[in-house]
Structure formats: structure tokens, C-alpha cells
Amino acid sequence: MELTRDAAWAHLSEWTETESLRKHARAVEVVMRRAAHRYGEGAADEEAWGATGMLHDADYEKWPEDHPNRIVGWLRERGEEELAYAISAHYTKWNVPYQSQLDKALLACDELTGFIVACCLVRPEGVSTLAPKSVKKKLKDKAFAAKVERAEVYTGVELLEADLGEHIQFVIDALKPYAEELGIQGRDLRKN
Predict the structure, then answer these.
(1) Rounded to whole angstroms, how far apart are CA atoms 11 and 18?
(2) Which of 34, 174, 169, 175 is nearest to 105 (CA)?
């Protein structure tokens, strides 16, 4: 991969101005970096998988009607076909087949990461005591985080041949070290 993390973040920041979408990009980056070790080839995949997670929604804020065309085009111009393809596949309306572990992992991690962050934001303890059982219960509540595509969560986990509860725990564990940066440490643990 030629694209550096710093260049990817600079591009994301240029196209994405809201803190909430930047935090989502960072959260998915963190989870995808960890996913490279669980579902991919480890350190050899970490940078590419992290950049894919970071950039998957980079064009959404400025051009929601054209998402993900702009970021896919930008990546292809730079020769980052693997990242561009995975981001194309994550946009399920395009019906792009899931070919690689990267494609499957992005689908399995993107929506679930956003959903878990939403769970953390309504808990006094944030991510510190969040358990898969609570996340599964909230997934059944269609009114909670209603914009989260639950079908994508389930399909991604199935494509990875993973257990839903174990994958939820994996995402929680990936996010915990970054709780303060992502604002999911909980109200009881925030510094005044």
C-alpha cells in the first residue's frame, strides 16, 4: 500500500468536517486494524485495513448522494484498488461481491462499530462494562440507533464465519483502549 496513514487522515479531514463522522472513521479504523490480526494476515494487512476503515465514509458528508463514488475514485487514482474494492463492497446497494477477507471484515465491522459506540453513549460506564448480551438486546430494538443497517451486521459476521457474540466482544475489546479519544469512556469516567 502506497497511501500513508497521515495522507489518508488528511484527506478524510478535508472532506469530513464533523467531529462525529471523524470519530466514526477513527473507530472503524481502530477496529479494522485489530481485525487484520483476527481475520487477515496480521501486521502485513494492518495499514491497508486501517486505512480502509478510516476512509470508507470519507465522501459521505460532502456528497451523500454520490457516496461512495468519490472516495472509490480517489483511491483508484492512487492505485489503491484493494481499498477501493472493499469500500465499494461495503456499500451494499451496489451488490459488489465480497471476495477478500478485507471486504467481509469491513462489512462486519463498520455498522457494528457505530452501533456499539451508540450503546456506549447511553451507558453511564460507557464501553468499560459493555457486554455482548447488552448489544444483542439493543440490536433487537429497531428504535435504538435506527439508522444502523442490522442486516449488514449479521451478513458480515456470517461471511466471516464468526460467532455474533464473539465478534461483538472483539469490537468492544478493540475500542476499549481508545475510549477517551472516541468519547465512549462513560459519564462516570470523564474528567471534569
Answers:
(1) 14
(2) 34
The Cα angle at residue 147 between residues 106 and 50, in degrees rounded to 5: 20
Is pLDDT at 162 greater than 60 in this prediction? yes
The rounded distance, in Å, linking the Cα atoms of 175 and 154 is 20
pLDDT bracket for residue 62 (50, 70, 90): very high
For residue 192, is pLDDT > 50?
Answer: no
Question: Beta-carbon neighbour count of residue 34 at 10 Å?
Answer: 22
Q: Shortest CA distance to 113 belongs to which of 98, 84, 86, 135?
A: 135
Scanning the structure block, which residue is given the C-alpha cell 451523500? 64
Q: How far apart are CA 162 and CA 155, in angstroms?
A: 10
The answer to whether residues 53 and 25 touch, using CB atoms and an 8 Å cutoff, is: yes
